[in-house]
Amino acid sequence: MRSNPTFRPLAAFPAAALGALLVTACFTGTTEESSIRRGDQAFAQGKWAQALAEYRLAVRQGADDAGTLARVAHTYAQLGRVDDASTFYVEAAAKDPAFADQAVSDLMRLAEDARVRRDRFAMAGAVEAALRLRPGLGVSDMSLDLARHYFQAGEYGRALPFYERELTESAALATPEVVFEVGQAYEEIGDCQHALVFFERFRALVREGDWGEVDWHIGSCAFRLAREIRTGTDVAPDALDRALGHVSRMLELGEPRNLLAQAWFEKGLILSELGDCAGAMDAMARVGTADNAGALADRALAIYDEIRFGRGLESLRGGRCR
Question: Which end of the chain, N or C, is less surrounded by CB atoms within 10 Å?
């Protein structure tokens, strides 16, 4: 386990220590004070449910100081009830920020316990609560488990910071599977530029026989980027060059196969914009040879003829072909 200076598990409080750590304001009445005293006694004996009942009674009777709220929160933590512990710790810390450290310690202990028993949902809930109290908190070796929890839940934007933290902290140990998952997460949030970096990295890490799926993702993202660039406004030649590189990479890989006709058509349009009329005609001629070309083949042929017999002949020295 990587060391984490921000995370020190909190041992169960002995009776004497409880009063010292959970410093409270003066009680507002003897009834609440008696309930808290009985709660402390029950807590010291490990009777969490009884202690909680007494602490909650004190709160209902008007004891809303930070110390009492923290007692309730800590007892909920002993019972493993993350949401309830978080709620009361947030209230306690709002009244006295000194309780934030105790809250984070309890919550991270719950998160680690959940990680050990492979309960990623509970682990994520505890870490989320701790991060609300201490943004930027280190999460020890839970980064990958948290990333995969959010990834599997379809929350890709939330998964990425934990994936990135895992890659930063253990770059030498990053498996191809993790690299591929990061690429997929970026693709799912629509960031194909970053997705391609990780897909290509994955491809370099595995055998040729394992390229099938990643080639599909690379081709899909590359085609999307090429089309986005070309259809933008006031597209500069260097941007078109990038678009050409993306679509050429897709055609090199031959995936996704159902988009190959569209890819040749896209390449023809890009080359036409760049003034490479011969290249544009060659790309348009290839549209009809791809699967699922359909009506796109007729459009490609029309553009081919327009370049060959129309103004395109005047553009062979440079400029657009159409």
Answer: N
Q: Are 243 and 283 in contact (CB under 8 A)?
A: no
Q: How many CB atoms sit inside 10 A of residue 288's CB?
A: 16
* Residues 9 and 104: beta-carbon distance below 8 Å: no
| Residue pLDDT, tens place only, 181-233 | 999 999 999 999 999 999 999 999 999 999 999 999 999 999 999 999 999 88
Q: What is the pLDDT of residues 49-67, one digit of tens each?
A: 999 999 999 999 888 899 9
For residues 96 and 66, the answer to whether their CB atoms sit within 8 Å is yes
| The domain made up of 1-135 is a member of CATH 1.25.40.10 | yes
CB atoms under 10 Å from CB of 299, counted, come to 14
CA distance 313 to 42: 93
pLDDT above 50 for 34: yes
SS (H, E, C) the chain: CCCCCCCCCCCCCCHHHHHHHCCCCCCCCHHHHHHHHHHHHHHHCCCHHHHHHHHHHHHHCCCCCHHHHHHHHHHHHHCCCHHHHHHHHHHHHHHCHHHHHHHHHHHHHHHHHHHHCCCHHHHHHHHHHHHHHCCCCCCHHHHHHHHHHHHHCCCHHHHHHHHHHHHHHCHHHCCHHHHHHHHHHHHHCCCHHHHHHHHHHHHHHCCHHHCHHHHHHHHHHHHHHHHHHHCCCCCCHHHHHHHHHHHHHHHHHCCCHHHHHHHHHHHHHHHHHHCCHHHHHHHHHHHCCCCCCCHHHHHHHHHHHHHHHCHHHHHCCCCCCC
Q: Is the pTM of this model over 0.85?
A: no
What are the structure tokens assigned to 123, written together? 């682990």
